[in-house]
Amino acid sequence: MTNRVAFCTFGCRINQYDTETIRTLLEESGRFRTVSLRESADVYVVNTCSVTTQSDATARKAIRRISGERPTAKIIVTGCYAQRASAELAKLPGVVLVLGVADRIRIVSEIEKCLAIDSSSQGQKWVEDPNFPQRIIVSPPSADTFPEIPIAKMMDRSRAVVKIQDGCNGVCSFCIVPQTRGRSRSREPKKIMEQINRLVDNGYREVVLAGIHLGDYGSDLGSGAPTLAKLIGEILTIPGLVRFRLSSIGPGAISEEIIRLMASEEKFARHFHIPLQSGSDEILARMNRDYTVAQFERLIRDITDAIPDCGIGTDIICGFPGESEAHFRETVARITALPISYLHPFPYSARPGSPAEGYANQVPSEERKSRTRVLKQLSRTKNRAFRERHLGHTVTVLLEDQRKGGKETGRVCFGWTDNYLRVAVREVPADTNGLKAVRITEVSDDGLIGVLAS
Q1: pLDDT, tens digit, for every residue of 19-28?
Q2: Residue 225 burial (10 A CB sphere; 0-12, 13-18, 19+)
Q3: Containing domain of residue 285, as a range?
Q4: What's the predicted TM-score (pTM) here?
Q5: Which of 65, 87, 126, 326 is the most buried (most CB within 10 A)?
Q6: How far apart are CA 247 and CA 229, in angstroms?
């Protein structure tokens, strides 16, 4: 009998990839089959994020909800929150096992240790083993290298995330990622190419390269290791790959060669997500960021000069300790003037053990939230203006899913442009997993609406 397992994943694309690793291990053991989170499962795996206090609270809420709705289910918790505060999570209802980020590959054997098969009733079911009290397995994060789990399919049927780097050597004062993920480690380029080829062979049209700090890729592989730009160039030669995208990448990691590749290679999606964090040099210095606002602005101008209609997103921390109203107004002015297509602003959250936790001049919580609201409104304004530039134009959309719309629309197919705009298509083609030319007819509240181009 196979046991049903469902996954609940929070945070970045690295976490998404790590969940796929866990899913593959469980399914290949022959003991588990994956069901959706909406279905009843025997085991729930919650992969957590701990980038903010809100991230922690969201994970705890999800665990309590699962336990309340499925009181007999067993909950396994992993991810950065599990690495940082395992004992805290182990106390939550329903949690039978907490695994650190380096320990997720042991999930099958650890489940077998802390859960036993009860064959006394008809069929089989998981029950807790009273002889196995240890529920917390957390190793140092840098013990996690790149176990080559042969992931050839993912829960997303069109887009595949491929992890090429983990950890970070940075010293940003607000961040605890080096504590939870360890120092930077790169994956062997040969293994990356092999996995992408497998994914393309299995029908995936888009691949997203992910890393905690993509700019560090290759720095630990010794002399002769490819740069990120060289790796991208090799990936773009893979036959059958339709679209290639980068996940979040720091300003210093975007070289002239990467910009040139994006400008010249059609399959390289015109989209960057580049964290700025603040539009004030004084605050960037307090954050220990390794660039100035002027350097960031010059990079954005270089990108948009070379790549028309490139979608550019950024992260902003609102209310970092010492951020005055004048600092914040400077951030708003800088962002307003730049060709940014969307923002991800969020209120500063003190992370346990980070240098900024003890900084003076902490900004009151309500002020942090107020500044976040201002930037969210600016993001809506800038994103709508960016979308309106596409009205009446024909764009290329990678269709991903379909669902029933309203009475007037019937069935609607959804997908994304290469420059990261969500498009609803009023017609559903026979092949909904591929690139389609779509003429944009409307701008909706959060995306675009169009029809298949004839």
Answers
A1: 999 999 999 9
A2: middle
A3: 144-388
A4: 0.91
A5: 126
A6: 14
